[in-house]
Amino acid sequence: MGKRKTQRLEECVPARIFGLDQKGKPFSAKVETVDISFSGARLAGVKQFETAGETIGLEYNGKKGRFAVVWVGRQGTKNEGQVGVRSIETRNSIWAMDKPREVQDSYQPMRIQSEARSGLGRVHRYQPFRLLHRECVAVVG
Question: Average pLDDT in the 61-86 region?
């Protein structure tokens, strides 16, 4: 099982991030969500961060909140330009959703099992897993 306390919803909506980048320069940028939960989101189109740890502002539909950048997609991967953010203000959400009850996370990463077959060496079999995200394609600028 995963570590998520609330479920994620696949939602591609425009938003704006603002604050200071890792060099201390102010920024304001249009981004898009990939998925959201009551307490956080995955954002696409983010170029301001190379590592996690910063606190930023996030605005959606006129509502603003403070969020911690908890992970940054690595360059050269499909997650490049994406960041994961978690709300610092845990009682309220900027998203139009009620606070869900805590649920067990059903996410399971792909695992490789090995089976020994006589005379054939090891055979690897991949377990199926659920893909929880879809690609969000948008022009952000």
Answer: 93
